[in-house]
Design a protein that fits this description.
The protein is α/β, with parallel strands linked by helices. The protein has helices at residues 47-52, 116-124, 137-146, 156-159, 175-185, 210-213, 219-224, 244-258; strands at 12-19, 36-40, 44-45, 62-65, 68-70, 75-76, 81-85, 108-111, 128-130, 150-152, 167-168, 205-208, 228-231, 237-238. The relative contact order is 0.11.
Length: 260
């Protein structure tokens, strides 16, 4: 059976894609802010042109083809109009087809090696943030899949891996702005519970008697502080020292901004 062909030559009629919201962040400069005409040489799942043009599937929250909500596996045959929507610019509810199950709560993260400061901030706010600076892409993707974690990365190729179900690309390069972006994306401002995770290893903190750690404290710390927490994984000791008020103010500012 002959494939459909356009009047212009030997390929099928192209499809036209509209990328909504900030999804044009992922597009080539000459595609930004305009519909993109994509040639089809054969039938293909709608996921293929979306990712070929730059947008990872993890960033797409809804797809509408010729006025009908569809999933990633919907076959394009040529000539269709495709609307691609991010989480914060969705079509009417009657056109929404879930592209993935909701991520389980409480949300857990695995974080790309280039986002170490973001990992520290998330841990400081109490979130489970798996991070090591020696994980390669395959390991990050495997952790995201096996542990149902949200993968945070600015590497589009990593986010396009098939096994990655949940993922987000912070558009910003500055860590504080990245943090606010993640909190907004997953509506986490009310889930902030600081001072319960180790910023070094992600372990949980627990109160520890001062007498048990006295030999590990500096003289001034022994003299001026009496309440301590210790990481149950790596043994790191925490107390509310001179830096505490500055960190508490940072957390309140971030929380307030994430709600706007």
């Amino acid at each position: 059976m002959d494939r459909p062909r356009s009047i212009l030559g030997g390929i099928m009629n192209p499809v036209t894609l509209y990328f909504h919201g900030d999804l044009d962040f992922f597009l080539a400069p000459d595609h930004k802010g305009r519909p993109v005409v994509y040639p089809l040489e054969e039938q293909a799942a709608v996921k293929h042109p979306v990712e070929s043009l730059g947008a990872p599937h993890t960033e797409v929250e809804a797809l509408v083809v010729d006025g009908r909500g569809v999933g990633f596996d919907h076959l394009l045959r040529g000539g269709e109009i495709v609307h691609v929507h991010p989480w914060n610019d969705l079509p009417p509810s009657d056109l929404l087809i879930p592209l993935r199950p909701p991520p389980p709560r409480p949300l857990r993260f695995v974080i790309d090696t280039h986002l170490g400061k973001l990992a520290t901030y998330l841990r400081m706010l109490g979130f489970d943030a798996c991070y090591r600076n020696d994980y390669d892409d395959a390991h990050l993707a495997a952790i995201a899949a096996a542990e149902t974690r949200v993968l945070l990365s600015r590497d589009r190729g990593l986010l396009k891996r098939k096994q990655v179900v949940y993922g987000y690309c912070p558009r910003e390069t500055e860590p504080r702005s990245q943090l606010i972006s993640v909190l907004r994306r997953y509506r986490l401002a009310d889930d902030i519970h600081p001072w319960r995770r180790c910023v070094r290893c992600n372990g949980l903190l627990a109160p520890v008697d001062k007498a048990l750690i006295l030999d590990r404290l500096e003289p001034k710390t022994r003299l001026y502080y009496d309440e301590f927490q210790q990481c149950q994984s790596c043994g790191q000791i925490y107390w509310r020292g001179s830096h505490f008020e500055r960190m508490a103010a940072f957390i309140e500012d971030v929380k307030r901004e994430a709600k706007t």
